[in-house]
Amino acid sequence: MYGIYLLLGWCAKRRAFMRVSSGTRTFVAATSFILCVLLQVARFRIGNGYYIWYDNALLFVCGLALFELMSRMPDKWFVSGARQAYGGRDRNALGRVTAFVSKYSFATYLVHFPFKIVLSPLFKSIPVMMPVQTMLLFACLLTISILICCALSRVPVVGKLLLYLR
């Protein structure tokens, strides 16, 4: 499965999916997301819990379709109208958030899993519905992972070699 991720990521980089319309991409992303959720709900209802992981084809298709949709977003959504003296433009709030998430996304992926192992049992003991537990765990893991990645990025060797920050 991970080989398919690499192969289709290479295809996306080579713009192999540019002929697919935005409407089709949106439909594919929404449909695969809904099917992921329905798969999980159905498996939990029959008493056989199923957790979506990176090897799930529906999740992969949803991610690829979303990535392709985002690659078509116009630059004007990410920069302010003001021009700087050197001819470039400042990023607006969406541009700054997108640049930050892009910079730290892989590092966050590398860092989050050990904390997930430690924190999952704690969040499962919270007396709320499982979707709420999941959202709380996600928010906590994201915050911890980004803070650790930001701290580690202060050490250039660690940031570049271990976290692949650019």
What's the topology here?
Layout: H1 2-13, H2 22-45, H3 57-71, E1 79-83, E2 89-91, H4 93-124, H5 130-153, H6 156-162
**H/E element string?**
HHHEEHHH
Strand count, sense and barrel status of the largest sheet are: 2 strands, antiparallel
Structural class: mainly alpha
Question: Could you give the order of strands across the largest sheet?
Answer: 1-2
Distance between the termini: 27 Å
Mean pLDDT across all amino acids:
84
How many distinct helices? 6
DSSP strand (E) fraction? under 5%
What is the CA-based Rg, rounded?
A: 19 Å
Total strand count, please?
A: 2
Give structural notes.
69% of the residues lie in helices and 5% in strands. With 166 residues, it is mainly alpha-helical. Strands 1-2 form a two-stranded antiparallel sheet. Helix 2 (22-45) packs antiparallel against helix 3 (57-71) and helix 4 (93-124) crosses helix 5 (130-153).
Task: Briefly say what this structure is.
It is built from six helices and two strands. It has helices at residues 2-13, 22-45, 57-71, 93-124, 130-153, 156-162; strands spanning 79-83, 89-91. The two termini are 27 Å apart.
Keywords, separated by commas or semicolons:
about 170 residues, two-stranded antiparallel ribbon, 6 helices
